[in-house]
Design goal:
Pfam families: Acetyltransf_1
Radius of gyration: 16 Å
Largest sheet: 5 strands, mixed
Keywords: Acyltransferase, Transferase
Enzyme class: transferase
Strand content: 25-35%
CATH class: Alpha Beta
Strand order of the largest sheet: 1-2-3-4-5
EC number: 2.3.-.-
Protein name: GNAT family N-acetyltransferase
Number of strands: 5
Number of domains: 1
Length: 152
């Protein structure tokens, strides 16, 4: 693996990001990857980019985007006023899965959370992703909560 570069995503990266989100068993049914990025993704990107507690990351190797994830830094009153880091929308380019990029991306993301003063890093994962569950277990994450969602 050559050197990875982590950077804040720009609007020019949206096509690559959405394509990675759509290129998986669950994402293929909920994302709209197309040559022209839908306006809904552009609006969401603008909101994420304007929020200082959000970091939409792309991971580059050479001139290619090989991964993405979103970090959210959540201030809170519980746990003595602790700040949490939330890792979401983790994807790796399909041709690079299995190359240990996920481990490198999580090490980077956890370091970013520490640097921002987080005392806890959390994530959610779909119940239909047993391989991801094993990966998170291996990284030391514990399945400590049950999550609920309500579609609106």
């Amino acid at each position: 693996m050559t050197e990875l570069r982590y950077r804040r995503a720009t609007s020019a990266d949206l096509g690559s990001i959405v394509a990675m989100l759509a290129d998986d068993m669950l994402g293929s049914s909920r994302e709209k990857a197309a040559p022209e990025v839908a306006e809904s993704y552009r609006r969401a990107f603008a909101e994420i980019d304007a929020d200082p507690n959000q970091f939409l990351c792309v991971v580059e190797e050479g001139h290619s985007i090989v991964g993405t994830l979103q970090l959210t830094f959540i201030p809170g009153l519980s746990r003595g006023g602790a700040k949490r880091g939330q890792i979401e929308a983790v994807r790796i380019a399909s041709e690079r899965r299995g190359d240990k990029l996920g481990e490198a991306m999580f090490a980077w993301a956890i370091d970013q959370c520490r640097a921002r003063g987080c005392s806890l890093v959390q994530l959610t994962t779909d119940k239909a992703r047993p391989d991801a569950h094993r990966f998170y277990d291996r990284l030391g994450f514990e399945p400590s909560h049950i999550g609920y969602k309500l579609s609106l």
